[in-house]
Design brief:
elongated; single chain
């Protein structure tokens, strides 16, 4: 008797099925309430369903760093690109690795998606390099008698740092105008017009707006002794920054310790070319940077904050540059080999600095974003850009939903035809599973960034079959018990332990396959694996806390307990044997007792 009670214990909740049903009902209400209260009443859609842009970036080998492409650097790059894109206000962007050297960036359609796409392609390292020489670049004729371009040092509109003597630059600017193309030594009284950095730096002025020293005061220019070698000076002379290819290739492949030539532009259509010294501060030394409004002047500025190690490096370089004459008192902020800003320095700076000048809101925020998130450990090449329109995404979603509806309809038809009344229990269980899946997917979007893409929809469709299979396993076990001659209520309880083991083993295999698929794959296939794993877990919950308790309650009703033809449990249709208790009453022959 004790053994019988143990085998018919509370597993599955047959003693108090109402409690299990109440528990899952409370869970459904809580999830639905959380979904409505959070305002996320629909699952977040992926790029292939909602429309947007998908960008594939490939990591490039770097000179002198054969092992730079590794998991650590790739993961670091993913985090930086994600912060850079989201820093532009692009919500729900997805950045993930694919294979060993590719990064996939998915940008949903939105007001800033185009701007984000432009900055995603800007993936090289960020460096602060001292300016050795700067000159306007373009197809302008050289005046007769002018010095060779290699000797010219016309400063680019430079950024000046507040805290210094602003009148100095103003006095230098009054020395007179010098004809375009005429040489000027770095030590001559040339001025850099434009943005000043409060406590730090000033942004480049408009090209061509700076005053130049008088010809009579201008000694012969001498190229920087170190590291502006003859080869570097030759590259500088030949460089034409108005040529897009030359502008892109300038300084390409150079190490941080090399001097380089580079191009920059402060005004659209106008370019300057530079000779820059070795990098002394990297983007990794910048802790934070952002565009903000100066409370005193009401102008847009870019504020920077360095790490403790970066502050020491920055103090060293600005202390040295502050003692130089223009343009050698400037340092260039170089991203992707392009000078994005070149402020001048008037005093030594350390942890905090502000770049001020003729910034607009967008230019200030863009520069702050680049400074904050531009220090990637690798360089990348844009391999492909795929744009999915919202119309195409809606069409694909419609196709996925139609496929799911067809699959569900076929399952329903099969259950009704073969299981008849038991189909009612199966359909209610599928409904509960569907509600749980929908609410959880809706909540996972804002919680962990889960996006429902087309493969995920396929995973949900496959899950319909997995869930229905669990019901079928249990129903067949119950039918087996009835075939052996047991009545319905004992059959329900005796069938459960065997069905439970089969369901758990089956779902474990499905979940293991989904987990392995999620780990070894990337991109959209992970959506399929995640959905398959989620629905597999929910299948266990539904079968244990809903299907089994509901089956116990239904077994107490007359419709099912009588075993009518439409109940799906008719003993005659199932070929039931005579009751077991009669078949087991077989008396063994007794031997005659000896006298």
């Amino acid at each position: 008797m004790a053994a019988a009670k143990k085998g018919r214990g509370p597993s599955g909740g047959q003693g108090r099925p109402g409690r299990a049903l109440a528990l899952i009902l409370i869970a459904m209400v809580a999830l639905a309430g959380g979904m409505f209260l959070s305002g996320h009443t629909t699952p977040r859609l992926g790029i292939d369903l909602a429309g947007g842009t998908s960008i594939t970036l490939e990591a490039q080998n770097q000179p002198g760093k054969p092992n730079a492409i590794n998991k650590t650097n790739m993961d670091t790059a993913v985090g930086i690109i994600e912060r850079r894109v989201n820093g532009l206000g692009v919500s729900e962007a997805e950045v993930q690795t694919q294979g060993d050297r590719n990064i996939i960036v998915n940008i949903p359609k939105g007001t800033n998606s185009k701007q984000a796409q432009e900055q995603v392609g800007t993936t090289a390292q960020l460096y602060f390099r001292p300016v050795l020489t700067v000159q306007a670049s373009g197809p302008a004729p050289t005046p007769s008698g002018s010095a060779k371009p290699s000797g010219s040092a016309t400063p680019k509109p430079g950024e000046s740092a507040e805290g210094g003597d602003k009148a100095k630059d103003g006095d230098k600017a009054e020395d007179g105008d010098k004809p375009e193309g005429e040489e000027a030594t770095p030590s001559a009284s040339a001025t850099t017009q434009g943005r000043a950095v409060t406590g730090a730096l000033t942004k480049d002025p408009t090209p061509g707006a700076s005053d130049k020293p008088k010809p009579s005061d201008s000694p012969a220019a001498t190229p920087p002794a170190d590291p502006a070698t003859a080869k570097l000076q030759e590259e500088f002379t030949k460089l034409d920054c108005t040529d897009p290819k030359q502008r892109t290739d300038a300084g390409k492949g150079a190490k941080a310790t090399d001097s380089i030539v580079a191009c920059g532009s402060n005004v659209p259509g106008s370019y300057e070319k530079y000779i820059l010294g070795p990098a002394e501060v990297s983007g990794g030394d910048v802790d934070d940077a952002k565009g903000a409004i100066d409370q005193q002047t009401g102008e847009w500025i870019v504020s920077m904050e360095f790490t403790s190690a970066g502050a020491k490096k920055f103090q060293t370089i600005t202390g040295r540059l502050s003692q130089q004459q223009p343009p050698m008192n400037q340092f260039a902020i170089v991203l992707d080999g392009e000078v994005v800003s070149a402020p001048s320095v008037r005093t030594a700076l350390s942890k905090n600095a502000q770049i001020s000048g003729s910034f607009t809101q967008q230019s200030a925020e863009d520069l702050g974003n680049i400074l904050s998130y531009g220090a990637l450990p690798l360089t990348f090449k844009e391999v492909s850009v795929t744009t999915v329109t919202a119309a195409l995404g809606s069409e694909q979603l419609r196709g996925g939903l139609i496929a799911g509806a067809i699959g569900l309809a076929l399952v329903v038809v099969y259950l009704v035809v073969y299981y008849r009344g038991l189909a009612f229990i199966a359909l209610l269980s599928l409904l509960v599973s569907g509600v749980l899946t929908y609410t959880i997917m809706s909540l996972l979007g804002p919680a962990i960034g889960f996006a429902l893409n087309l493969p995920a929809v396929c995973g949900a469709i496959v899950a319909i079959g997995i869930t229905a299979d669990s019901f079928i396993v249990y129903f067949e076990r119950v039918r087996d018990e009835i075939r052996e001659g047991r009545t319905l209520r004992p059959a329900i309880e005796r069938a459960w332990p065997r069905a439970r083991r089969t369901v758990l083993v089956s779902d474990f295999v499905s979940f293991l396959a989904a987990a392995v698929l999620f780990i070894v794959t990337v991109g959209k296939v992970q959506g399929f694996a995640f959905t398959l794993g989620l629905t597999t877990l929910l299948d266990v919950v539904v079968v244990f806390f809903f299907t089994k308790p509901l089956m116990t309650l239904m077994g107490r009703t007359k419709f099912f307990s009588r075993g009518g033809p439409w109940s799906g449990l008719d003993p005659k249709r199932l070929g039931a044997q005579p009751p077991l208790r009669r078949s087991r009453r077989v008396n063994a022959p007794t031997e005659p007792k000896e006298a």
